[in-house]
C-alpha cells in the first residue's frame, strides 16, 4: 500500500462509469476506484445490484415480446434522451 | 509458499488474503469461488480476460466484506497500490476469526479511534465540557448524536470537523458499515494532523493490524 491516498470517487461519478465497469472496459486504476467506492457505499452497491438485475431481466426480452404501444414509448424515450444529451 | 509481500518470487505460488461476500461470492463479479474440500484447497479460479485479485495484510482495510479467506495466487503476481493481481488463485482456508461480530467490532474500533482524536481536539480548543461529554457517550448511536451536536461550531474549525467525522464514523459503525466507518476514521486522522502526509496511511496500517489480529492472520501480541 502506498503512502498516498487513492483518490475518492463520488457516487455521481460511479453511476457514469457503471456501464463500462460491467463491460470490464475501465482502465485498471479507475476500475479499482469504482470497486473501492462500492466497498464503502451501500447505496451504490444496491444501485449496482439493481442495474445488474435490470440487465438480466431485459436480456430475456425479445423484440416480439413488446407490444406496439411499449415499443413506441421506448422509441419516444430514446428520441428525447438523444435530444437531451 | 512465500507470504503476501507482493514480490515476484521464484516460488510457483504466493499466499495472500481475499474478502468475499457471504457464500464465497465475489463482491464485484458475483461468481462463487470453489471452497476447499477434504483438506484440499478449492479449485483454481482463472478468467479468460482478467486476473484474480487479493490482498496483502496492509491492503485489508480497503476491501472489507463478510468473509475473509487465505488464498494461493499463481506467480508471478503483480503488486498494485491496494491489492495484488495474478492469473489464477484458489481458496485455501477461511479465516474464521473474521465473522459478523468481527466486522461490527472493527467498525466500532475505528470509530473509537476517531473519538479519541475528537476528544483531544476539543480539549485543545478549550471545549472541555464538550470533550468530557464526548468521552462519556456510550454506544455508537449516542456517540453519533453527541458528536453531531458539536460539529457545527464554526469558531473552532478543526475540533468541529473532527466531531463531524466522528458523528459519521460512529453512525456507519452503528449501521454495520464497517468499511465506511474505517474510511471516515482514516480521514479524521488526516483532519487531526493536516500537516502530516502519512496520517491516512498510518491509520490504515492500524486498521490492517486490527483486522489481522482479530482474524488470526498473525499471532496476537
Topology (elements, then pairings):
The complex is a heterodimer of chains A (85) and B (221).
Chain A: H1 11-22, H2 28-40, H3 42-59, H4 68-84
Helix pairs in contact in A: 1-3, 2-3
Chain B: E1 13-20, E2 45-46, E3 52-54, E4 67-74, E5 78-79, E6 84-86, E7 88-94, H1 100-124, H2 128-136, H3 140-150, H4 157-175, H5 178-192, H6 199-215
Antiparallel strand pairs in B: 1-4, 2-7, 3-6, 4-7, 5-6
- Helical residues, percent of chain B: 40-55%
- Principal-axes shape call of chain B: elongated
What is the spatial order of strands in the main beta sheet of chain B? 1-4-7-2
Give the largest interface: A-B, 17 and 28 residues
Average of the residue pLDDT scores of chain A: 85
Oligomer: heterodimer
Beta-strand segment tally of chain B? 7
Distance between the termini of chain B: 24 Å
Spans of at least 5 consecutive residues with low confidence of chain A: none
- Please describe the biggest sheet of chain B, giving its number of strands, its sense, and whether it closes into a barrel: 4 strands, antiparallel
- Structural class category of chain B: alpha+beta
Percent strand of chain B: 5-15%
Helix fraction of chain A by DSSP (H/I, runs of at least 4): over 70%
Cα(first) to Cα(last) distance of chain A is 40 Å
- Write down the secondary-structure element order of chain A: HHHH
Proportion of strand residues of chain A: under 5%
Domains of chain B (count): 2
Number of strands of chain A: 0
- Put simply, the count of helices of chain A is 4
Amino acid at each position: 500500500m502506498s503512502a498516498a491516498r487513492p483518490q475518492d470517487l463520488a457516487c455521481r461519478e460511479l453511476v457514469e462509469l457503471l456501464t463500462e465497469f460491467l463491460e470490464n472496459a475501465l482502465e485498471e486504476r479507475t476500475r479499482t476506484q469504482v470497486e473501492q467506492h462500492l466497498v464503502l457505499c451501500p447505496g451504490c452497491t444496491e444501485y449496482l445490484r439493481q442495474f445488474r438485475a435490470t440487465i438480466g431481466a431485459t436480456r430475456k426480452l425479445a423484440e416480439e415480446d413488446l407490444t406496439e404501444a411499449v415499443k413506441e414509448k421506448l422509441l419516444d424515450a430514446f428520441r428525447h434522451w438523444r435530444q437531451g444529451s | 509458499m512465500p507470504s503476501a509481500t507482493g514480490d515476484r518470487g521464484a516460488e510457483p505460488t504466493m499466499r495472500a488474503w481475499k474478502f468475499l461476500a457471504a457464500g464465497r461470492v465475489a463482491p464485484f463479479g458475483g461468481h462463487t469461488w470453489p471452497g476447499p474440500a477434504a483438506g484440499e484447497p478449492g479449485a483454481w479460479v482463472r478468467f479468460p480476460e482478467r486476473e484474480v485479485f487479493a490482498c496483502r495484510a496492509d491492503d485489508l482495510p480497503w476491501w472489507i466484506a463478510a468473509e475473509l479467506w487465505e488464498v494461493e495466487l499463481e506467480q508471478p503476481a503483480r503488486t498494485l497500490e491496494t491489492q495484488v493481481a495474478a492469473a489464477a488463485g484458489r481458496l485455501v482456508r477461511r479465516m474464521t476469526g473474521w465473522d459478523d461480530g468481527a466486522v461490527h467490532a472493527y467498525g466500532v474500533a475505528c470509530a473509537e479511534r476517531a473519538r479519541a482524536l475528537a476528544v483531544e481536539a476539543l480539549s485543545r480548543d478549550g471545549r472541555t465540557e464538550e470533550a468530557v461529554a464526548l468521552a462519556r457517550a456510550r454506544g455508537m448511536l449516542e456517540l453519533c448524536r453527541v458528536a453531531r451536536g458539536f460539529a457545527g461550531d464554526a469558531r473552532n474549525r478543526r475540533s468541529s470537523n473532527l466531531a463531524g467525522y466522528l458523528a459519521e464514523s460512529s453512525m456507519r459503525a452503528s449501521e454495520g458499515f464497517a468499511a465506511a466507518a474505517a474510511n471516515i476514521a482514516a480521514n479524521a486522522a488526516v483532519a487531526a494532523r493536516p500537516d502530516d502526509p502519512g496520517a491516512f496511511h498510518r491509520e490504515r496500517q492500524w486498521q490492517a493490524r486490527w483486522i489481522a489480529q482479530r482474524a488470526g492472520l498473525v499471532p496476537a501480541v
